[in-house]
Amino acid sequence: MSDFLVIGGGVIGLMTTLQLADAGHSVTVVERGGCGSEASWAGGGIVSPLYPWRYSSPVSRLASWSEGAYPELALRLLEETGVDPEYRQKGLLYLRVDDETRALEWAREVGKPLSRVGAEVIRRKEPNARRDIDEALWMPTLGSIRNPRLMRALRSRLEDMTSVTLREQCTVTGFERQGERVAVVNTDQGNLSADQVVICAGAWSAGLADMAGLDLPVRPVKGQMILFKAPPGLVERVVLMDGRYVIPRGDGRVLAGSTLEDAGFDKGTDDDARSSLWHSATAIIPALADCEIEHHWAGLRPGSPDGVPYIGQAPGWDNLHVNAGHYRNGLVLAPASTRLLVDQLLGREPIIDPAPYRLQGRVEERPRG
């Protein structure tokens, strides 16, 4: 029996496991597919909410803490695994921001470097950006990470830790209750048990919570993206316009995203989305029109009503916990949200006030019958 059983092998699950293992605990990870193969793989890897001034303070507090943690995490994983998560801090250009005043006020309030820049700076920072925009907002501190490589590095590190067991292609089918505790977790590969159980399965978390008698308002929200095979240097930093973005990788490839679709658990792609993403990307960087689209895919974000994740102990349970509902910001918030939960699991002083993220008052427990 492990000290902890983590259900979900995405970025939240694997970062939770790494921190618990670092603290000397045994952890079993149960993943219905392959670790890091769902939303954590499918996203863009921007280490900030797209328009941070439009988010509530609970999201902003997690994002701010996480942003400072990523450089150290990326370096650690590179040294320990040889897999480079490709953390890049080259800033972000916002083109055509309609609430610029609000953005600048937010930046002053939180002490974030964000400034209005003119055509000369735009051309210097991103020479291949469209030429008909003469003003933009510039955030020099924004970073991005190559999330598939981050997931590969996390998995590789955990594989080498003797206190960690990864059980992939393993589906949870139910929970056996004994008083206020999860006594047994049923899976299609047999029963498992642990002192503490954590649900952090992204868009699938609501189904797992339902098995535990909880109504967790997390739903799948599909996002489609495309990848251009571009020459190195065509795009140097993240550029955002009208809610769509382009993200460069170290080898020159450029991601463009993304759609927002309520389509249940359907991860299919379609030509309309591909065309829309292509037009958005080429409107930002016209030269992308000459580049091949190398890949087109979709992922499922764990949508929640207000975008504030559910982090903490499940109502009515002594040893069941949840970390889910990060919506578009799972990768952005992962270091802080996992640290916040681990602090509570281990009885440590939490990095920030956990109250806004608690399940009590936000998640209903169904009567036992």
UniProtKB/TrEMBL annotation:
Gene name of this polypeptide: thiO
NCBIfam families xref list: thiamin_ThiO
Lineage top rank: taxon: Bacteria
Pathway: Cofactor biosynthesis; thiamine diphosphate biosynthesis
Name this polypeptide is given: Glycine oxidase ThiO
InterPro entries: FAD-dep_OxRdtase (IPR006076), FAD/NAD-bd_sf (IPR036188), Gly_oxidase_ThiO (IPR012727)
Keywords: Oxidoreductase, Thiamine biosynthesis
PANTHER family recorded: GLYCINE OXIDASE (PTHR13847:SF289), SARCOSINE DEHYDROGENASE-RELATED (PTHR13847)
Gene source species: Halomonas litopenaei
UniProt domain FAD dependent oxidoreductase: residue ranges: 3-343
